[in-house]
Amino acid sequence: MSSSLELFGWDSTWADAFAPHAAGGLTPGRVVRVDRGQCDVITAAGPVRAEFTRTDVCTGDWVALSGLYLHAVLPRRTALVRAAASGLSHGQVLAANVDVVAVIVPCTVEVDLGRAERLLALAWESGARPVVVLTKTDACPDVARVREQIDTVAVGADVVAVSAVAGDGLDALADALTGTVVLVGQSGVGKSTLATALTGTDLAVQDVREVDGKGRHTTVRREMIPLRGGRGVLIDTPGLRGVGLYDAEDGLHRAFADIDALAADCRFGDCAHGSEPGCAVRAAIDAGLLPARRLDSYRKLIRENEWAAARTDARLRSELRSRERAFHKAYRNQFNRPGRDRRTR
């Protein structure tokens, strides 16, 4: 197969998956950008503009073309999926067949560890390898402090600190980002500046508001660009204002592997890590080995993921409502015990 497709990730495994379509005279290609009803596809003969009628086509998909019509989408190896922004009970695929998810965290503002944990859960769930990229280190007075904070949440993931403006750390980052790489993060975190440095493609960059560190959407659609040196391709995504979890149970357990490891030593298998005796998680918090904030974040994301799953599962939805009613009933009862002075409420 042409080296142009190999640059975009084509290999013998994709060739085997495509074999039935090849037998039918169809052409392989990879989607590099999607618009309404049309997509840009790279093929061995070069880029083409193809039409499609299906709704599940995403940047990164390998497809079978019949002329200038998208006939089929090959099964995905990995997929970065968030809850649909509309709140509907289905997921939105941000990028397909990704090898590395680069979670972008800026060093210029107070680190939002909760958002980093959320993005890492999505990254682990995708099946790709997460890498946390600390950007704008040239504008940070204490990179070591930020690095120490992010290390507490980036369990099992590499962390690389860079300044795209000064060029610091870019070689180390290039070594960590190979294959198909997707950048995820809020607007203004430095994604487009970083993408320009990694690809050599001049992407538009807009200023960030000093008052809150946020910026406008520089990238308005997901598109794929070759990395420098033929290392792979980069998918730059628009800034994500909201990142809802969707069927991310495995990703949450990977992102919070430290808590799961501690929970294995709890006295009770169903320990809620509250006031139960013999709770290893609470003991670690009391000893200063685990931040209480991290357990709170874990619980919050677990609940969110359960409710997202309940949107499409009536039985689970009923169980969650019963559990919530039981909790509130127990809470009320503690204020209505016989002999309790109601004036102390």
UniProtKB/TrEMBL annotation:
One Gene Ontology term of the biological-process aspect is: ribosomal small subunit biogenesis
**Localization in the cell:** Cytoplasm
Subunit arrangement? Monomer. Associates with 30S ribosomal subunit, binds 16S rRNA.
Q: Which family does it belong to?
A: Belongs to the TRAFAC class YlqF/YawG GTPase family. RsgA subfamily.
Q: Which cofactor does it need?
A: Zn(2+)
Q: Which PANTHER family match?
A: SMALL RIBOSOMAL SUBUNIT BIOGENESIS GTPASE RSGA (PTHR32120)
Metal-binding listed as a keyword: yes
Q: Which InterPro entries match?
A: G_CP_dom, P-loop_NTPase, Ribosome_biogen_GTPase_RsgA, RsgA_GTPase_dom, Sigma_54_int_dom_ATP-bd_1
Organism, as annotated = Cryptosporangium aurantiacum
Q: Name one GO cellular component term.
A: cytoplasm
UniProt: Zn(2+) binding residues: C266, C271, H273, C279
Cofactor: how bound: Binds 1 zinc ion per subunit.
Q: What is this protein called?
A: Small ribosomal subunit biogenesis GTPase RsgA
Q: What molecular function does GO assign, one term?
A: rRNA binding
Known function: One of several proteins that assist in the late maturation steps of the functional core of the 30S ribosomal subunit. Helps release RbfA from mature subunits. May play a role in the assembly of ribosomal proteins into the subunit. Circularly permuted GTPase that catalyzes slow GTP hydrolysis, GTPase activity is stimulated by the 30S ribosomal subunit.
Sorted alphabetically, which keywords does the UniProt record give? Cytoplasm, GTP-binding, Hydrolase, Metal-binding, Nucleotide-binding, Ribosome biogenesis, RNA-binding, rRNA-binding, Zinc
Which residue numbers delimit the CP-type G domain?
Answer: 90-243
Q: Which residues form the EngC GTPase domain?
A: 96-241
Residues bound to GTP: T135, K136, T137, D138, G185, Q186, S187, G188, V189, G190, K191, S192, T193
Enzyme Commission code(s) on record: 3.6.1.-
Matches recorded under Pfam families: RsgA_GTPase
